[in-house]
From TrEMBL:
It comes from Anoxybacillus mongoliensis. Keywords: Coiled coil. This is Glutaredoxin 2. Residues 5-38, 71-98 form a coiled coil.
Amino acid sequence: MEHTLRQILDKLNKMEANMATKQELAEIKAELEEVKASMVTKQEFEEVKGNMATKQELQEVKANMATKQAVLETNEIVKKLESKIDSHEKLLTLLSHRSLEHEAAISSIRFLLAK
């Protein structure tokens, strides 16, 4: 019987060692209240959720950005081509004038040779 009582006493001592005191419970309760106070409410969560973009909206923005990038790149290419065309037009104008001058010189030479 004494052995059984010691076993029961040992078990009670172990249980007592594992139990929290009233002060520890009060501290845990205070921490829990702090956590509750800092948590967002369902309404706040729904507001945040409502303000977030959907995957589809993000994909649309991404596609729009890609389109804008393509337009910008195309504009750059067009500007370069316009610059080259201007340069080629100037060169063609110069060559046309030289060709006319050479034709005039050739005509003068033919006229002098024909005399």
